[in-house]
Design a protein that fits this description.
Layout: E1 2-4, E2 7-9, H1 20-29, H2 39-42, H3 48-60, H4 63-68, E3 72-74, E4 77-78, E5 89-92, H5 123-129, H6 132-148, E6 153-154, H7 178-193, E7 198-204, E8 217-219, H8 222-229, H9 231-238, E9 244-247, E10 251-252, E11 255-256, H10 261-271, E12 277-280, H11 289-294, H12 311-318, H13 324-342, H14 356-369, E13 371-375, E14 389-393, H15 418-426, E15 431-435, H16 460-471, E16 475-481, H17 502-512, E17 516-521, H18 529-534, E18 537-540, H19 548-557, H20 578-581, E19 591-593, H21 602-607, E20 625-632, E21 636-637, E22 642-651, E23 657-667, E24 678-687, E25 692-700, E26 706-708, E27 713-715, E28 719-726, E29 732-740
Parallel strand pairs: 5-6, 6-7, 7-9, 8-10, 8-19, 9-12, 14-15, 14-16, 16-17, 17-18, 21-29
Antiparallel strand pairs: 1-2, 3-4, 4-5, 10-11, 13-18, 20-22, 22-25, 23-24, 23-28, 26-27, 28-29
The structure holds beta-D-glucopyranose.
Residues 93-94, 155, 202, 281-282, 407 line the site of beta-D-glucopyranose.
């Protein structure tokens, strides 16, 4: 491996350059990115002339040709029009790197030499940056890679709300909070579409568990749907202008999402004005007439010979069950997608995979995502003047995570592991001894997806070796967590416990070396009870992409001051989390009753006074920040007003650092059930050591609304509200009361 002028790439890797991403990165640094970024492109618009061409094409197509465009032609394409030389549409996963090529009708990889890509930090890592600029950089880079690989539709971002901490896809998703999801998803989409690649935001909607995902029905009230599960999708469509959306596998209130008139026709198209294409999840279509009439445009993943939208759709039109106009409208949307994504092909944006700029982007994102959970002995950053021998223990020190998790895998051009990162960063200054510590057991039968989780046994011989290494070292660094045999699509975890006997390993190592740092590489919450008991130094470092190992090493060595914050709550016990407390996960008789309603994530823990292990928004720094001088622009507000909050953040420590300031709002005289508090604004700021920054947070009074499901409208009830500035959901710094008229 070698480092080049601040940009880190493995030796010998082919580098091509492009100019869009660096411009965005650098122009954002100077707070004006308009030169680099085209709003028109990012919104997926096409020209009037193209619209005319599309009408001409539709008029010339036979019914059979039209329906050919509305279903999968191969695993990752939908049909084109051979007679007119219109190529098929190319899709690919998403959401954290462009998946390797598989056969047209088989999932077996083609083993090409040309289909590697950058492994981006996964969704929960991006969310932990709490930084929409990182989402824009992410989207731009992944969009460029999709373009380069000839993909017109990226199957991402994935933004389902983290309702249960055990969801096998938590790592792909972002957060438990609709606002944090919304702010990130909008910029991710803008970045992708700026490269003329259509972002297909997924999985619409209320797809919060993998257990029985293809058959389960989510039963939830309208208020919960509107306040918790839909806002980020709404933002993706109305602000991000996503050109495509993927319907989820599950049912909502008894109807499959892919044929759900309420969801697709009434809300998505009717209320939000969505003009793009609705793509089914792979094999997630269940009917011809209902799906065609209720909003689905393209059926993906089914056997190309017998799809619901092939011959069956032709017959449905001939029998008068579906009007040809409905088919025409779907074809029109598909053609718009083709015209949009084929503009500018062959331009600079199409020449880039794993460029220095992309490597820089994933390094920055990874660096901002790492969460310092606990550092009460100030073991971090490492005092490299004093530390001579380091024991690095744990399979995740060398485990690569790019390829795992079914659909969301990437054939990474390279992936720097934590051990490689540490050796490159400090190997010349300290002796590093690596021992495996625990053995990851692999899912025995890969073809069986449900319920067959790997074994969870400690390996005494590996623990003994680890103890020996730790005893002889100045410090020990345990790098554990999960892997994609534990966190994966199609299976939920059954427990939050660290797998493979890691608690026994942690206990044994910490008992011989009190200077033990525990690093967790995983994608969702885990139970850190033993880790907290045994060690005072805990870091959470995610599945952190191609550059994850370097970012982690730079955090440990102190070159990056950690600034990640948890995008979801870590419960003290799984039973404390709402769906588990109410025993509504995974549901009974294929029905998941969302009894917790709007009390998801911190909304639940706060309102019910249940202390989590780590709260939402938690994350420490190597410096400390004081909050003072909170000011609000008025004491009393009308319904159409803006609330402007300012405060001073002072860096009271010795290092420059970044802090995410969170603004929570509580209704002090609620007319209906309200969570104890809700996140309503946040911003991340950089503050030099000893310096101060005035932070401004703005929200509309309308942001305080709840959804009145009797009147079917958003309502801000007049009364007193409390605004709280905070460093996490538990670390409230200053409060002010306001009243709304
Ligand atoms: C997943 C989608 C993915 C698709 C194609 C499905 O199983 O749910 O997220 O995009 O497969 O790989």
């Amino acid at each position: 491996m070698k480092k080049t002028s601040g940009i880190k790439v493995p030796a010998g890797d082919k580098i091509t350059t492009n100019f869009i991403l660096p411009l965005i990165i650098s122009s954002f640094l100077f707070f004006s990115f308009n030169q680099a970024y085209s709003q028109k492109k990012a919104e997926g618009r096409i020209s009037k002339e193209d619209e005319k061409k599309i009408e001409k094409i539709i008029a010339s197509l036979s019914l059979e040709e039209k329906t050919e465009m509305l279903h999968s032609n191969s695993l990752f394409t939908s049909g084109g029009i051979t007679r007119l030389g219109v190529d098929e549409l190319h899709y690919d996963d998403g959401p954290h790197g462009i998946r390797e090529e598989v056969g047209r009708h088989s999932w077996t990889p083609l083993n090409l030499t040309t289909d590697s890509a950058t492994f981006f930090p996964t969704g929960s890592a991006l969310a932990a940056t709490w930084n929409p600029v990182m989402a824009l950089i992410y989207g731009t880079a992944i969009g460029e890679e999709a373009r380069t690989r000839g993909k017109e539709i990226l199957l991402g971002p994935a933004i389902n709300i983290c309702r249960t901490p055990v969801n096998g896809r938590t790592y792909e998703y972002m957060s438990e909070d609709p606002l944090l999801n919304s702010k990130l998803v909008v910029n991710y989409i803008k970045g992708v579409q700026n490269s003329n690649v259509i972002a297909c935001v997924k999985h619409f909607a209320v797809n919060n568990q993998e257990t029985n995902r293809g058959t389960v029905s989510a039963e939830l009230d309208e208020r919960t749907l509107r306040e918790i599960y839909l806002p980020a999708f709404k933002a993706a469509i109305t602000e991000g202008k996503a050109g495509a959306i993927m319907s989820a596998y599950n049912k909502i209130r008894g109807t499959y999402c892919s044929e759900n008139d309420y969801l697709l026709n009434k809300v998505l198209r009717g209320e939000w004005g969505f003009e793009g294409i609705v793509v089914s999840d792979w094999g997630g279509t269940h009917s011809t007439v209902n799906a065609a009439l209720n909003g689905l445009d393209v059926e993906m993943g089914a056997n190309a010979k017998t799809p619901f939208f092939g011959e069956a759709l032709v017959n449905a039109v001939k029998e008068g069950k579906v009007s040809e106009k409905v088919v025409d409208e779907k074809v029109r949307r598909m053609l718009r997608a083709m015209f949009f994504s084929r503009q500018n092909s062959g331009s600079k944006t199409g020449t880039a995979v794993s460029t220095p700029e992309h490597n820089e982007a994933v390094y920055k994102i990874a660096g901002e995502s790492i969460v310092l959970l606990k550092n009460s002995d100030n073991l971090l950053p490492l005092d490299l003047g004093k530390i001579k021998r380091i024991a690095v223990i744990g399979d995740n020190a060398t485990h690569k995570h790019a390829s795992g998790g079914f659909g969301a895998g990437v054939k990474a051009r390279f992936e720097v592991t934590p051990l490689a990162g540490l050796i490159s960063k400090i190997g010349s200054r300290a002796e590093i001894k690596f021992v495996q510590g625990y053995k990851p057991a692999f899912r025995a039968d890969k073809s069986v997806s449900y319920g067959k989780l790997p074994e969870n046994k400690p390996d005494q011989q590996l623990i003994d070796e680890a103890v020996e290494a730790a005893r002889n070292a100045d410090i020990a660094i345990i790098i554990g967590g999960t892997n994609h045999d534990v966190e994966t699509e199609a299976t939920d975890r059954t427990t939050l416990a660290l797998p493979f006997g890691q608690d026994e390993l942690i206990k044994a190592v910490c008992s011989v070396n009190p200077k033990t740092i525990i690093i967790i590489a995983a994608g969702g919450p885990v139970d850190l009870t033993e880790a907290m008991k045994s060690s005072n130094t805990l870091v959470y470092s995610w599945y952190n992409g191609s550059q994850g190992g370097w970012a982690l090493a730079d955090v440990l060595a102190g070159d990056i001051n950690p600034s990640g914050k948890l995008p979801f709550t870590f419960p003290a016990r799984l039973e404390d989390s709402p769906a588990h407390y109410l025993q509504t996960f995974p549901g009974e008789n294929l029905t998941a009753d969302y009894k917790e309603g709007i009390l998801v994530g911190y909304r639940w823990y706060d309102t019910k006074n249940i202390k989590p292990q780590f709260c939402f928004g938690h994350g420490l720094s190597y410096t400390t920040f004081d909050y003072s001088d909170m000011k609000v622009n008025a004491e009393s507000f009308g319904q159409d007003d803006k609330i402007e909050v300012s405060l001073k953040v002072t860096n009271t420590g010795l290092k420059e650092g970044m802090e995410t300031v969170q603004l929570y709002v509580s209704d002090l005289s609620p007319k209906v059930l309200k969570p104890a508090k809700e996140l309503k604004a946040f911003t991340k700021v950089k503050v030099p050591s000893g310096g101060e920054v005035i932070v401004h947070l703005t929200l509309n009074v309308s942001d305080l609304a709840y959804f009145d499901d009797k009147e079917m409208k958003w309502v801000v009830s007049p009364g007193k509200y409390k605004l709280a500035t905070a460093s996490s959901a538990e670390d409230i710094r200053e409060e002010k009361e306001i009243s709304i008229q």
